[in-house]
Amino acid sequence: MTTSAPALRIGLLGTGPWARRVHAPVLAAHPGVALTGIWGRRPAAAAELAQAHGTRAYATPDEMFADCDAVSLALPPSVQAPLAVRAAEAGRHLLLDKPVAITVAEARAVADAADRAGSASVVFFTARFGEREGAWIDAQAAAGGWFTAHADWLGSVFAEDGGPARASEAERGGSSPYADSPWRREKGALWDVGPHALSVLLPVLGDAETVTAARGPADTVLLTIRHTGGAASSATLSLTAPGPASGVEVTLRGTTGTTALPRRQAGPEPAFHRAVDALLDAARTGRPHPCDLRFGVRVTEILAAAEEALG
User: Fold this and answer.
1) Crossing angle for the helix pair 194-205 and 182-192, nearest 10 degrees?
2) CATH number of the domain enclosing 157
3) What is the value of pTM for the model shown?
4) Do residues 142 and 259 both lie within one domain?
5) Do the domain assignments include residue 47?
6) What is the pLDDT of residues 265-307, one digit of tens each?
7) How far is CA 150 from the centre of its chain?
8) Which candidate, 202, 290, 188, 289, places its Cα nearest to that of 250?
9) 29 vs 16, 25, 159, 276, CA distance in Å?
10) Which one, out of 77, 93, 160, 227, has a CA that is 20 to 30 A from the CA of 34?
11) pLDDT of 186 higher than 50
């Protein structure tokens, strides 16, 4: 007779749209997880979300840390980073959103705290954990021989025309639940969708050796990267693209021809479920996941370099 592993007790930090739509329902339904409870900066919102998923609201993060094995963070990056350090110092595993932080120092502090505690970590990048997208990324990394790549990651969250975006439901202009996000308005596309583009380009083409950046219209940023494998890539990032022009496309060109990132056919929930699976595996085996905090730190370093290049 075999006995299944006990459920990992995970507490949720955050009560915003991303927590309500993705984190809370996936954690509550995951067979390997016990959703211990929820903490949020708005106690009433935490109580409402907890009641909806049959768990409890906590008054403080530290009270929740005492009752769980891991934490899932659905918070702005400037809030996520210090709370992740506290969770790691309490010995908890970490499931973080991108970007890990908005400064390199804060991102490294989270990774160092996790290393000291021996905490497993996974940073959730939607494309990297998508079933079709993740398989494509792995296949192209194994194939090699890539000469160049280009990524368009264009949302219309803040588009003036308010037209519907094709990138995803979460990025539809006008009706987007993320249009009221102060950190997205402040940091723009570079920090919001830039991590997604890097999560595809880096594992296929190698780490970034040099990064340059230029401004386009509104918050649009144009990146160029030379990779350690010798390939060059470029990316156009925006949260202010006109609705009809929005969407996600990544194209690779190399010795075997041309290939493109498959389009996502479902919402982010299945991808987040796989990210939870990855954390469970890393916590159980002690083997780091490719999208752990060290990768999250490297993404932050590249974004910071691009921001510096923008002046």
Assistant:
1) 20
2) 3.30.360.10
3) 0.93
4) yes
5) yes
6) 889 999 999 999 999 999 999 999 999 999 999 999 999 999 9
7) 20
8) 202
9) 19, 6, 35, 11
10) 77
11) yes
* pLDDT surpasses 90 at 167: no
Neighbours of 145 (CB within 10 A): 12
**Would you call 117 exposed, middle or buried from its count of C-beta atoms within 10 A (0-12, 13-18, 19+)?**
middle
Structure-token pair, residue 220: 């649009």
Task: Take residue 200 and report the two structure tokens written for it.
Answer: 């595809």
Contact 24, 45 (CB under 8 A): no
**What does the pLDDT read at residue 175?**
63
Which residues make beta-bridge pairs with 187? none
243 DSSP 8-state letter: G
d(CA 296, CA 98): 7
Residues 190-208 have pLDDT tens digits of: 999 999 999 999 999 999 9
Residues in a beta bridge with 254: 146, 257
Q: Which amino acid is at 298?
A: R
- Provide the number of structural domains found in the chain: 2
Cβ burial of 265 (10 Å; 0-12, 13-18, 19+) is exposed
Q: In a 3-state reduction of DSSP, which class is residue 244?
A: helix
